[in-house]
Design brief:
The protein is mainly β and about 325 residues long. Strand 3 and strand 4 form a beta hairpin. It has four domains: about 90 residues, Baseplate protein-like domain - beta roll fold (Phage tail proteins - horseshoe like beta roll fold, Roll); about 80 residues, Phage tail protein beta-alpha-beta fold (3-Layer(bab) Sandwich), CATH 3.55.50; about 80 residues, Bacteriophage T4, Gp27, baseplate hub, domain 3 (Elongation Factor Tu (Ef-tu), domain 3); about 55 residues. It is built from five helices and 21 strands. It is globular, with a radius of gyration of 23 Å.
């Protein structure tokens, strides 16, 4: 079972689990900061019923079997006298990278060095972020700390042909970067084991099957395309204006090609290992594409009903493992 604790005003350490009615813990590839939403009992009239003081800035952390799985600060609080409830929303330390901005002109520097600079400016600890070994130039003016980091890794993503998909996350209060899509050990989504509802969808709304490439002078360089997609769906074309430092513009354009979006939403028995960025093995026999495959978690929502002990999770899965790309402004 999970346990929630709070550290209010830097003074009082409190186990708040028994005050909680529901706990929702979630993450999303696009919004990046993990969020904790809690509804608690909060007595208005019964003075014999103790209340817990929670307010903006309160440090909250959550453990499962004595292993910490979330640490963050409260940003929003609401007290409802009719319902006699207190609700709060806390975010992990990644929120500070998304809400603060800076301007930098980096020259001949690796993304990991950029990340360390940004973490120092943000007051966030920097842990295992790996080694790319690729030095880049990056002009990031009035960008959030998070966007600056991702602009750097987006450049690497293009240069290495999309082989690595970088995903920053908070391990307690330490920033780390993982390669997305690595399958969780000894876990499978299966109707006879843990699966409730499944929703499957596919779409070509975001398809790009042809990319014309031009250099910085506007001269045509070449074309990247996927002929089978064009034959099946018609031409859906984009344009890539290659900067002078891109030595393989056709390769970059090829990475811009985008096929059919296939997504799967599942509701199943909860497992706290299933968080955004990780891969999961899927065996759903009633959908052909899901007979036996590995998919990447694009978003996750874990819900605990504290009174009953019920724990479920909703996952959005994607066949394609792809990091969030934050492109450098053309003016830069």
């Amino acid at each position: 079972m999970i346990r929630l604790s709070s550290f209010y005003n830097g003074k009082v350490l409190t186990n708040i689990t028994n005050f909680c009615k529901s706990i929702v813990w979630s993450g999303d590839k696009d919004s990046i900061a993990r969020k904790l939403e809690v509804t608690m009992a909060y007595s208005i009239w019964d003075k014999n019923q103790p209340n817990v003081q929670i307010g903006p800035g309160t440090l909250i952390w959550m453990v499962e079997d004595e292993k910490e799985i979330f640490r963050g600060h409260v940003f929003d609080r609401e007290i409802d006298s009719d319902a006699q409830e207190l609700k709060f929303v806390a975010f992990d330390c990644m929120i500070y990278l998304t809400k603060s901005k800076s301007s930098h002109n980096f020259t001949n520097i690796t993304p990991e060095e950029i990340t360390r600079v940004i973490c120092g400016e943000a007051g966030v600890f920097c842990g295992d972020i790996g080694v790319t070994g690729l030095k880049i130039d990056l002009l990031a003016m009035e960008k959030t700390f998070y966007d600056t980091i991702m602009m750097a890794y987006t450049k690497v993503w293009h240069f290495n042909g999309g082989r690595y998909n970088f995903y920053p996350f908070m391990n307690r209060d330490v920033l780390e970067i993982m390669n997305m899509g690595v399958a969780i050990d000894n876990f499978v989504i299966k109707p006879s084991l843990n699966l409730g509802k499944t929703t499957y969808s596919d779409s070509i709304s975001n398809m790009i099957n042809k990319v014309n490439v031009y250099n910085s002078k506007g001269e045509y360089v070449g074309t990247a395309w996927q002929r089978d997609w064009i034959k099946a769906y018609g031409i859906l074309q984009d344009v890539y204006s290659a900067p002078d430092d891109d030595n393989a513009p056709i390769t970059t354009a090829t990475n811009m090609l985008h096929g059919v979006d296939e997504t799967v939403s599942v509701n199943l028995i909860g497992d706290t290992r299933c968080t955004t960025g990780w891969g999961v093995k899927v065996q759903i026999p009633y959908i052909y594409n899901l007979l036996d495959t590995v998919m990447c978690i694009d978003s996750d929502t874990h819900t605990w009903e504290v009174g009953t002990g019920k724990y479920t999770m909703d996952l959005t899965l994607n066949f394609q493992t792809k990091m969030k790309l934050v492109e450098v402004d053309e003016a830069a």
